[in-house]
Amino acid sequence: MQYRTDAKSGNQVSILGYGCMRFPRSRGQIDYEKAEKLLLSAVQNGVNYFDTAYLYGGSEEAVGAIFHKHNLRKDIYLATKLPHAKCQSYEDFERLFQVQLTRLQTDYIDYYLIHNLADRAGWQRLCALGIEKWIAEKKASGQVRQIGFSFHGAQEEFLALLDMYDWEFCQIQYNYMNVNYQAGQAGLRRAAAKGLPVIIMEPLLGGKLAAGLPKKALQHLKAAGGGASPARWALRWLWDQPEVTVVLSGMSAQAQLDENLDIANTALPNMLTGQEKAVFAPVVDAFKEAYKVPCTGCNYCMPCPNKVNIPGCFAAYNMSYAGGFVLGMQQYLTSTGGLDPNNSFGARRCVQCGKCETQCPQHIAITRSLQAVSRRMEPKWVRPLVKLALKLRG
After folding, report:
1. 22, 24, 67, 21: which is closest to 43 by C-alpha?
2. Which of 388, 389, 347 is nearest to 366 (CA)?
3. pTM (two decimals)
4. pLDDT of residue 336
5. What is the DSSP letter of 304?
6. Where are the beta strands (DSSP E) in 243-392?
7. 393 vs 127, 341, 389, CA distance in Å?
8. Burial label, 126 (beta-carbon count in 10 A; 0-12, 13-18, 19+)
């Protein structure tokens, strides 16, 4: 495992961090045994940075229980996040924090983030509630070791937020498809220039840069030679940049963990040749041509009050362009409940209440996009075909 130095604290953090939002699940609940095996394997192979959040249903509890059971708390750096939208008073900061300490079975947090701080107005609101005083108290007591924020918003807001407080780290969405999106490369470099460790989320864009690349993009990578997987290309692109401190990966299977560990073991700053860097331009063009909705499958928009499987709709819709209409339709029928006699089609259920759009960190026009999904994936001939299939299936 390679490590990079957190210049603010001096901590040596593993360049591969474990994002704990996408633990394997069974019947909607985290599969504790599988999650335990993954976390222990990660620690044994040198991963020491683990990221969770109050809002990642069941994640804090699972992480806390596993590390407490195996007495590993002091061997790792634990990151979690304050759900600031739930804070309406000064007392809420402490109330929520104490819930998190209980869930995580710890008395301190190494890296504490304001979750999804999207703009200056959001920080100013928290300041009016007294968050700076609260942070100072937590820092003085040792209950919070490093304070930072995660970000999904416009680049100008990110650059402004960097100067509004003496932050000790930050977390941004960044990958070779998002060079000029949200904080982007300019934000990464500005944060690093201020001495902040930068934690990267969505390095594979919700898996799309690993297993969901359009055919044309995949062909470009294969033509580049070397037999490297799409995930290897994407992760090496990030670790090539010395401004990147930790790359979080939401690994939900041992095979994913093994591959990422293998890549991380030899990843160094400035390792890519000019020829290798040139490979990404045509891949980006092919990706943009095929993918219509920039959904990462984070599920922040869920649950939908009208039971629309929003990420499932967008994944199938994008696949209908990237992998062909038949493959996309097959995915749509299964992922949105189209073949479930107790349900109906996904996108058509949308009543445009807009609740999902207030939660989306990608700022997708979800209701309008679902209309496009319905037009493409729910032509008139599909319903009779599905009814026939259900009848034949009994």
Report:
1. 67
2. 347
3. 0.80
4. 62
5. P
6. 246-249
7. 59, 11, 6
8. buried
For 36, 68, 103, 129, 310, the CA distances from 59, given in Å and listed in that order, are: 12, 14, 9, 28, 22
Domain positions in the chain? 3-289, 310-393
Q: What pLDDT score does 391 carry?
A: 62
Residue 203 CA to residue 235 CA, distance in Å, equals: 7
* 174: nearest Cα among 254, 114, 112, 235: 235
Structure tokens given for 121? 């107005």
Query: What's the CA gap between 116 and 121, in Å, rounded?
Result: 13
Q: How far is CA 175 from CA 93, 126, 204, 286, in A?
A: 32, 29, 7, 15
Span 334-358, pLDDT tens digits: 666 554 444 555 788 889 999 999 8
Extended strands (E) in the chain: 3-5, 12-14, 16-19, 25-26, 29-30, 49-51, 77-82, 109-114, 144-151, 169-173, 198-201, 246-249
Are 268 and 2 a contacting pair, CB within 8 Å?
yes
- pLDDT for the residue 341: 44
Choosing among 3.40.50.720, 3.20.20.100, 3.40.640.10, 3.40.50.620, the CATH entry for 3-289 is 3.20.20.100
Place of tokens 């995949």: 218
- Measure the CA dihedral 170/171/176/182, to 10°: -80
What would the two tokens of residue 342 be? 């107790």
Q: Which residues contact 392 (CB under 8 A, 6 or more apart)?
A: none
As a whole number of angstroms, the distance between CA 64 and CA 98 comes to 13
